[in-house]
Amino acid sequence: MVKRKDVAKLAGVSEATVSRVFNNVTPLREETKRKVLDAAKQLNYYPNAIAQSFAKGKSRNIGVIVPFLPKIHLLSTYYFSEILSGIGMKLGERDYGLLLLFQPPNEKKDYVQLFHKQKVDGVIILGSQDTPGETESLNKLHEQGFPYCLVNQTFANFPFHSIDAQHYEGSYAAVSLLVEKGLKRIAFLNGPMRFSNSYERFAGYKDALKEAGITCSSNLLFEGNYSRTSGLKTAEQMANYMSEIDAVFSANDRMAVGLIHGLSELGYQVGQNYAIIGYDDSDIASLMKPQLSSVRVPLFDMGQQAAEKVLAMLDEGIHSPTQVRLPVTIIERDSIQMSEKEMD
Amino acid sequence: MVKRKDVAKLAGVSEATVSRVFNNVTPLREETKRKVLDAAKQLNYYPNAIAQSFAKGKSRNIGVIVPFLPKIHLLSTYYFSEILSGIGMKLGERDYGLLLLFQPPNEKKDYVQLFHKQKVDGVIILGSQDTPGETESLNKLHEQGFPYCLVNQTFANFPFHSIDAQHYEGSYAAVSLLVEKGLKRIAFLNGPMRFSNSYERFAGYKDALKEAGITCSSNLLFEGNYSRTSGLKTAEQMANYMSEIDAVFSANDRMAVGLIHGLSELGYQVGQNYAIIGYDDSDIASLMKPQLSSVRVPLFDMGQQAAEKVLAMLDEGIHSPTQVRLPVTIIERDSIQMSEKEMD
């Protein structure tokens, strides 16, 4: 295991200087700081000792960051409630408290101060987005060796600890399934690209169409924000293109529900005018008529594994960055069956 | 406002003794303690100063107690997720953290120690039950003047702070509605009586039948534990009495869903063989076919008001115990319409 003295040697500074850099207490020359951080990175050094020193006054709370969105019953959504249930299960077993911390999505984050204030022993981050401010704050958390884990967000250029799902593969499989059913003109209702899983779904969609020799028309690309309302609003735009659409791939079930409702009001029915497949396999999918096909994401397990990971970091220290991807499953239901008349 | 010296005078002890009782630091004779607590109760004295002294090291966290039930995705249930969304909304607005604390339902609780450990500035208690251990722990919290609030549980003999709903009225109205539809033989699937709202639902059910001149047969009383599985299991028992049953009143929607599913497997269908009304008006109620009638409980508002109440106690001190009851609304849907043939 890499020690403080190894970093000091490579950076050409004293061990005390290494500590000062990671403790962030005394002012240091930018150049010295850079040298130490570069050496630490090169050696894969994680200053557990520092995290441990804060942990002396252990709170036995794990912080869970969730976006604060006024007027949205966020915790009532299948997505957040399943992840939280999984986290809660693990923390409950180990007698840890789950500290929900609400953060307005567009405010500057400072995750490290949560540790300095001794509010938490570790942190799990939901709803993280690929923005410069967010990346900077996560990088600080990572470099200073605090126990943390992202859920359902992966950063292409940073080795942040994360538990994610195989969204590229899931989207590829969902779109390929529609193609196999003879549904070739496939509209895509995606979420914002600042979420890595929107980006990955788009890549899966594009590649599946390409593989099938289908040209992806930009007319058939729509964007919502993963809410039911955004699906409902999209119906009006999509209605203009229904003569060009055989099927819809929706990046989550909530948007699919809104879209189905909106299109129905405008005279377009699932199974008669179009097929649809959602994503997440939330509890409503099987309760709808026709039942909604979907891509099952193991959100509960992802929450459990994120909590396990953070607790393991507390118990055993942080050894190396890990990105975990859990598999997803296609759940085939009635919403991708077109009535025979229409398929003639 | 009642002061410490008033309590000292009435109890016939020194002011320091009063403080010692409420601080719970030094050992005291049981008799002295009793005298002081009785005097405090008689005068409606709440030792805010003590709560404030702990609050000096404010955590800016509000604790939310939830039952720890392994294998149950508790936070994914409509009931808990809506209350938590409401709490979270208020706390998020005021920049407080929500500390979820999981407590195994059958373990001895010690709510006061949460304050001593300075983990929380106030506490909101969900899933509280009327058991001797629970009552004792709540009484300590109450007498020592800590900011707290119960949600959806009222204790008949203790003036604990609570936000509840009008469950007696809701149940009375639900059962009366079935009677008005000509459905007179009404089975009742209730939850356990240690929850005050089960008790209140039973009282509303009984009184509505009595008012209508209908004798309530104990054959038609069933008990589950508010889970879907318990509703499913009840189907087997209820099936033996279906010839005596016109309608079912279920104490929540989750049990209703399980029951409907179970009865359907055994050959009994809603609208043909029986009518049914649930409780909570969860999101699934309107998605089912036929749509489930239900009693809408303002769970989100209850969560918001509980958080507001605890924050107000922190800001302004605790003046007097308050029990709030929010109104509920009957939501009539297809599940209480019998097909005409059956009603002949």
TrEMBL record, chains A, B:
The keyword Transcription regulation applies. Residues 2-56 form the HTH lacI-type domain. Keywords: DNA-binding, Transcription, Transcription regulation. Gene3D superfamilies: 3.40.50.2300, lambda repressor-like DNA-binding domains. It comes from the Bacteria. GO terms for molecular function: DNA-binding transcription factor activity; transcription cis-regulatory region binding. This is LacI family transcriptional regulator. It comes from Halalkalibacter okhensis.
